[in-house]
Structure formats: structure tokens, C-alpha cells
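Predict structure. Chain length: 379.
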Amino acid sequence: MDFSLNEEQQAFQDSARAFARDEMMPHAKAWDEGSVFPVETLRAAAALGFGGIYVRDDVGGSALTRLDAAIIFEELAQGCTSTAAYISIHNMAAWMIDTYGGDDLRRRFLPKLCTMEHFASYCLTEPDAGSDAASLATRAERDGDHYVINGSKAFISGGGRSDVYVVMVRTGAVGPKGISCLVVENGTPGLSFGAHEKKPGWKSQPTAMLNFENCRVPGANLVGAEGEGFRIAMAGLDGGRLNIAACSLGGAQFCLDRTLDHVRERKQFGSRLADFQALRFRIADYGTELEAARLMLRRAAKAVSDREPNATRLAAMAKRFVTDVGFEVVNGCLQLHGGYGYLQDHPIERVFRDVRVHQILEGTNEIMRVIISRGMLDN
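Prediction complete.
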């Protein structure tokens, strides 16, 4: 098995790394402090092909693999973890339209999503349907050639700012088989948004509730067939979990790199921190854990791309392991910086706030354990 990157992968890794360093990292602090949604930076990322990473190229996508995406998001997250995570969500929504939508739907929405002229959000969670996503209650009733939607969605990244919302709705009976997927455009009568949520992290992307009140959506905006929405949502989450894991990995690597510089330079008790064996062992553990996380992530990414039978379980394993390891490494790096690490003038506390939510979204890490154990015990 060859673990090295091929020439093409090295090229877009270098491209993503340079973009993160030059276009994201210098502005991440200001985006965080001002809750700035960096539209022009996002569109510049799309110009490099990052707006439709695994969307087919006939509508402007880059047609890359899940492994390619994991490599890209690890690099982007080192520039700004929050912004990289939004790009991940946008890509997940675009992929759903590309994979399950008809040709008309693809050509109507994807060209502008791939350039990020338009932004996309993924809408599954509801106030009373979080981990138990199959219990969602937002309803879409057929009325002629339209669907009429009533209900609400919670914790939507890009809520109020995105142009396109990929929404899971109930068109049939209770349970997963009664769920369908619709594309709803911003500005559709009956669609409104709650106030922006106040969050400790992820401040470069707005988060808001979506409210539907007799919101009429063309039947042509149905993604897949009626009753396929839950399957589409879960397939999208396999990739979304990989991407968010890659963002945790990138954020943690960013913090570890800065911690290496810190312990080489900082002196206490007459010696560099790097000369204390206890701290050297901690650094060794962090490096080992991130390398193990990277290998697990890339193995799962290949499984999802190749549609291996155990792909969902491996994606859940990667999401659980990498996001837990990422947070612990960031937390440890903050500790090694002492009081300086806790100050907002230092970037590690920002990454600490950003990566914490990765253990919650795209399915909590407790739900990842449910998926993993089901695959191990119930088959």
C-alpha cells in the first residue's frame, strides 16, 4: 500500500497550503472578532476549484476524490478552521445536488455553487430532531406542481446568508422512509430566518434557524425521488464527517507547529521548555496521535470514494477519532503556552473554540459510537 501523495495531490495540497497561508491566516483573527463572513475569500478559494471539490466537471466542479478533499481541508483549516468548515458544508450540499439531482437541477444550481457566486447550506437538524434525525417534523405537502413546506430547521451554518438550502422534509409517513430532499432558494416567499446564534467559535460563518411558513417550492427542486431524503442525507454525512475531521486535523497541526516554536524559544528555570523530558514526551504523543489520525482519515476517505461496504462505519470511526484527537491536541498545545495561550491575541485559543464543535456536529461523537458498534455487533 502506497501512503505517499501522487503528483496531482501534492500540487493541490501546495495550492491549498499557500492559499491558507496568504489569503486566510492573515485575516482569521479579524473574521473571528468581527463575525465576518469572508465572501471574497471564499470566492477566491472557489477559483482554485474548492467550491465543488467532488462535483462533476460538466457543471464546473473539480471532480476530485474524498481523499483529495481531506488533503485540501486539512490545509485550509490551518488558515482559518471556521472558514474551512463552512467550505466543507457548502461542498457537501453541492455534492448532494450533483449526485442525486436530475440534469436540470444540476445545471440550474451547480455552476454558481462551484464558483461560490452562490453559497449553499445543508438543513437536517430541527429543534426537536437532533441526533434522532429520522424523527424530523418539517413537512412538505404536494400541491399541484409545488411542495408547501411548514416547519423549522436549527443550527444551520450559512443560515440567512446562503443562497441555496438543501432541506430534508417529511413528505410521507413517520420514520426515515417518509423523508425527501428539496432545494429551497433564499428569497422564496414563506422562508424566513432567526437571529444569528451567538457562539464561542465558528464566528466567520453565520448560524441561524430557518422557518418555513407555507413556503411554496417547485416540485422540480426535488432531489432524487420522494422517500429518498434520509438516504441522501446520510450519504452526504459520510463525506461531511471526513471533511470536518480534516478541519480538526488541520487546526490541531497548526497549533502543534506553533507549539514546537514556542517550546524551543521559551525558557523557564534556566532551560528551554524543549529541554524538559516531560514536555518532550507530550510533544511526541501529540505528533504520534495526529499522524495516526491522518492515516485513519485517509483510509476512511478512500473507502467512501470507492463505496466500500464498510465506508459508513469507517467514516464514523474517522470522525470520532480525529475530532477527539484534534481537540485534545489543541487543548494540550494551549496548556503548553500557559497564560499566553489563553489570550485572544494568540491564535491557539481561537482554534480551541473552533474545533470544539466538531465533536458535536455532523453527528455527535456519541452517535458515531452507535454507528460503529452497530456495524461491529449487528451484522
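Summary: Residues 109 and 305 are 23 Å apart (CA to CA).
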